[in-house]
Amino acid sequence: MSLKRGPLSLAVLLLGVLLYAPGQAAAEARFAEAIPDLPLMAGLVEQPGAVVFDKPSGRIVEMEASGPLSQPDVEAFYRRTLPSLGWEPAGATLYRRAQEQLRLVFRPAEQSVTIRFVLSPRE
Q1: Per the CB 3.0–4.6 Å rule, which of 40, 50, 66, 91 could disulfide with 34?
Q2: What is the pLDDT of residues 97-118, one digit of tens each?
Q3: Residue 44 is inside which H or E element, if any?
């Protein structure tokens, strides 16, 4: 018995791929709850207690994430990732986009790192 692949089979296959692919992308890309457009590097866990203010001059958010990573690896991740989201480097741990700036403040420990993300209107 031979299987014929007609337009219906192709449509079902395409539908399956489309339904599967977004789930995969969502599983791989994680974003912070406090700063929804900030990706979290794999291995970082957002800590509770973020401070969030929306002001007419812009957002002010301070949040922390930590994980069993090294500071150089985390810095490299954000140096690679943030420019693709419109952030331009303005220093080793400072990025600017439109009217906002994002500062990364590191607290390394022996086998982990805690990073504080400070989002504020541009100075």
Answers
A1: 50
A2: 999 999 999 998 888 999 999 9
A3: none
State which amino acid sits at residue 54. Answer: D
Is 16 a member of any domain? no
pLDDT in tens, 20-46: 434 333 345 799 999 999 999 999 999
CA distances (Å), origin 104, targets 35, 110, 115: 13, 19, 6
In a domain, 100, yes or no: yes
State pTM to two decimals: 0.75
Any idea what DSSP says for residue 84?
Answer: G
* Residue 40, in any domain of the structure: no
**117: CATH:** 3.30.1370
Q: Which residues contact 122 (CB under 8 A, 6 or more apart)?
A: 58, 96, 98, 99, 100, 101
Query: Could you give the number of structural domains in the chain?
Result: 1
pLDDT above 50 for 5: no
User: In whole angstroms, what is the distance from residue 64 CA to residue 34 CA?
Assistant: 9
**Is residue 112 assigned to a domain?**
yes
- Could you list the residue range(s) of the whole structural domain that residue 65 is in? 45-121
Amino acid letter at 14? L
